[in-house]
Amino acid sequence: AMAPGKKITARIKRTLPVKGPQAPTLSELMRWYCLNTNTHGCRRIVVSRGRFIWILLTLSAVGLILWQCAELLMNYYSASVSVTVQFQKLPFPAVTICNINPYKYSSMKDYLSELDKETKKALETFYGFSEGKSKVRRSVDEWNSTGSDFFQQIPLLKFEDFSKTATDFRSGQKRKIEGSVFHRDSSIVNSGDSNDIIGFQLCDANNSSECALYTFSSGVNAIQEWYKLHYMNIMAQIPLETKEKLSYSADDLLLTCFFDGLSCDKRHFTRFHHPLHGNCYTFNSGENGTILSTSTGGSEYGLQVVLYIDEADYNPFLVTSTGAKIIVHDQNEYPFIEDIGTEIETAAATSIGMHFTRSRKLSKPYSDCTETGADIPVENLYNKSYSLQICLHSCFQKAMVDSCGCAQYAQPLPAGAEYCNYKKNPNWMYCYYRLHEKFVKEQLGCQQICKDACSFKEWALTTSIAQWPSTVSEDWMLRVLSWDKGQKINKKLNKTDLANLMVFYKDLNERFISENPANTLVILLSNFGGQLGLWMSCSVVCVIEIVEVFFIDSLSIVMRRQWQKAKKWWNDRKRDQLGKPPQAGDLERQGHDNPVCIDEDLPTFNTALRLPLPQDNPLPRTPPPNYSTLRLETAFTEQLPDTLEVGQH
């Protein structure tokens, strides 16, 4: 006997229509889904008279769900910025100070004498400049008409009326400038009636027809750029130890020092040699493992120094301004004084107030930043913590060594390389200028490779300037400072030789700016559920149901029909080969005669009425009843006497 539970299951199966993947067609499957799903709208498509309206509403709801979910996915990797301000004792940053003039001009006389003579001769030829009108108080040798081969190769030229006809200042003769490349500054501005412009020509040493012509908006810019070009070539040949001696010592640069109300001296400064600025000195560099801090804000509790600039010993052609340059940075950062340094003027007291901010960005996939720079394929040449500037400069230096065979003077040396100079690398100037042009136009790929650092510290600076020393205190202050410096110099100090600098925290509020994920996986799933529930009253189970019906079940029906067609084709092919007539059992069956739909349960009354009839047989008639079956039979072999009828007695 069948168990009660199985009887109930069988009875339910008999009353339900054909369902799920056993449906013979996709339309029946879709109808079954619409009638049985819990998703709103689908059932109304089948049972409502306004079927097309419900189809439109359902499709609109599905479209809105897809749109909102796509927005949620696109905004998943967005970040929110939070700012935290806390008051605490702050570490004091490193402060690097450089004289704008990198080397004492008096010490560089022997190295630059020939270059200075060439420069003065060009000024005399083009502008009528003579030694008597110059502020330079140094005697130089008479003009050497022959000069060096180096200056003959790259002379200053005067171009007339923006043409390629130029006058060589050495010979005074006009000549035609040939070359396939003609480069001109895009912002040339001329004053007066003259259209003459100054520039110079760089040619490829291996191919004299490959030349680049550089002209400038002002003769001052042209002469300075030409001078720096030859200056770097000369300095690249001088050993580092010699250059450190030619530059300023700590005693030369620093007159007085105070920090946090206490006196300090040169022992608190670390020497740092910069290729373009000579000897620089860093206060609180942290080299000895100790980093100074301050617990009070205000100018009296910061760093106060008086700098000796010595304007009279400046190189008149290399620098045209007087003063010092400073940069505030972290102890692990390289001081790019030439890029972001702040200039300090002489005869003035410069106060620099600081606000400290720490920032941290989220790395991938939220932003394209790097944590340590280890994932950047560029060697760090500065031996400091990674920064975007370090990466860009290192990338250019590597390209310089690979393309030109030597390193550019203003940046650190890669392993196994040497600085460019005209004697060993006669083609380096043309190569450098062409390479730098590509770098500026972002054609070297450095800007694409290098990324911002995810974590960095920043000191926002506020600068104010006051006249110093004042007129009433100038006399005694200069006398006292001259006496303090008396053992090192033999002259009275002038206020244009001095600069007063104060660096301090305006307040001790540390600002921490951080990025946090705006979304998490839990929030994303919750938002998905909210959209599904809002538009279609659907849940995750409904989504699984949709996947099962529209993908798994639909694919099963399609594959089953294709299999039946392939099987029928194969049977027909075999039958044709054997010459057998088609059998009745081979005819395609439909409805519940389909073997796929055969269940172990008998069909219900309604499904039995829909069973197809045999094609060649007459309609069956109802058979007469078997009256013998109406006779009542007892389950016992003998009848009890009290159950007999009365008539039988």
TrEMBL record:
Biased composition (Pro residues): 615-626
InterPro entries (UniProt xref): ENaC, ENaC_chordates, ENaC_CS
Record GO terms (molecular function): ligand-gated sodium channel activity
PROSITE patterns linked to this entry: ASC
Alphabetized UniProt keyword annotations: Cell membrane, Disulfide bond, Ion channel, Ion transport, Membrane, Sodium, Sodium channel, Sodium transport, Transmembrane, Transmembrane helix, Transport
Reactions catalysed according to its record: Na(+)(in) = Na(+)(out)
Keyword Nucleotide-binding: no
Positions of transmembrane segments: 52-77
Family annotation (PANTHER family): AMILORIDE-SENSITIVE SODIUM CHANNEL SUBUNIT GAMMA (PTHR11690:SF19), AMILORIDE-SENSITIVE SODIUM CHANNEL-RELATED (PTHR11690)
Name of the protein this chain belongs to: Amiloride-sensitive sodium channel subunit gamma
Organism classification: Eukaryota, Metazoa, Chordata, Craniata, Vertebrata
